[in-house]
Amino acid sequence: MDEYIRKQDAVDMFNRAVQDVGILDADDIETVFGMLSSADVVPVVHGKWMKEDRGHVEYCAVCDQCGFDWMWSDRGYFKFCPYCGAKMDRKE
Predict the structure, then answer these.
(1) pLDDT value at residue 1
(2) Whole-angstrom distance, CA of residue 85 vs CA of residue 16
(3) What is the pLDDT of residues 36-88, one digit of tens each?
(4) Do 23 and 48 reside in the same domain of the chain?
(5) Considering its fold, how many domains does the chain have in total?
(6) Are 54 and 69 within one domain?
(7) Nearest to 58 by CA among 72, 75, 79, 76
(8) Do residues 20 and 64 share a domain?
């Protein structure tokens, strides 16, 4: 699995290392970045609500990523699937 770091943390640590040591070589840079802790991130999954006709139910939608289905009101759709967390912004 990939590891991610916060950009500002990397810049701050790099600047401190340059101030303390001076010009860094590739091994020094690898050591500096190796000391950074990984950020807690989750990949963004993009999905789309699929309208489904159930005959007696006027408002039904299904998440195309996990299959979660729900009855919605005239207030509209969720921007994220409440079950899998997919961001519902895919157009097609």
Answers:
(1) 52
(2) 38
(3) 888 888 888 999 988 877 666 666 788 999 999 877 655 667 888 989 999 99
(4) no
(5) 2
(6) yes
(7) 72
(8) no
